[in-house]
Amino acid sequence: MVRLAAFIIAFAFLFGVVAERPAPVRPYRLAYSGSGLNHVAVVSDSYTTGTKEGGLGAKSWTSLAWRILGREGVRVSADVAAEGRAGYGVRGDHGSVFADLTGRVVHPDDELVVFFGSRNDQGVDPDAYAEATRSTLESARRMAPAAKLLVIGPPWPTADVPEVVTQLRDILYGQARAVGAAWIDPLAERWFVGRPELIGSDGVHPNDAGHAYLADKIAPLIGTRLTRRL
């Protein structure tokens, strides 16, 4: 009986020790953490801010593009600096040029920096424009040395593009190549041409459908240049 009692006590003690010991912690990684996030900066004008014609808030091409990429397993953390009437060489509604906007949103850990536009530079002297584009793109390269640069030229909603706009396009193309940026030419690709239903009543700015069109155009251009996927 004494041996039986001693055995029961010993067994109970051993069981208690085992029962109170917590299960070992297994390391795990959250699916949406760490390296799955791509940092992107966007610098642009009213084609990105949206206007009363369309593209405001969640209907902007940037918001729509991030959703498109998210559905493809590409998560984007974006900083967007866009100002109506702004360009590389002309100040916008709040006094900024693209260089100012670049300084606000480009960071050392960015994987991609996107420039889009701008038709607003039509009144800028060509030599001054060349210098402004060069210094802006080079500043982005300095601020985010590991980032890819994607330069999208100015769009025009009709086939009759003013000569000054094609001249701006040509200058910007040269500066983009000089810094090793990827180049997209909406004029050559005829974005919006023959699609008046995508442009608002002012004849200039995209409406909501136009922003969806831009998102469909630009999201793949961004996605193919991002390496982090879920």
Automatic annotation (TrEMBL):
SGNH hydrolase-type esterase domain residues: 45-212
Leader peptide range in chain numbering: none
Record Pfam families: Lipase_GDSL_2
Listed CDD domains: SGNH_hydrolase (cd00229)
Top-level division of the source organism's lineage: Bacteria
PANTHER family for the chain: GDSL-LIKE LIPASE/ACYLHYDROLASE, PUTATIVE (AFU_ORTHOLOGUE AFUA_2G00820)-RELATED (PTHR43784), GDSL-LIKE LIPASE_ACYLHYDROLASE, PUTATIVE (AFU_ORTHOLOGUE AFUA_2G00820)-RELATED (PTHR43784:SF2)
Protein name listed in UniProt: SGNH hydrolase-type esterase domain-containing protein
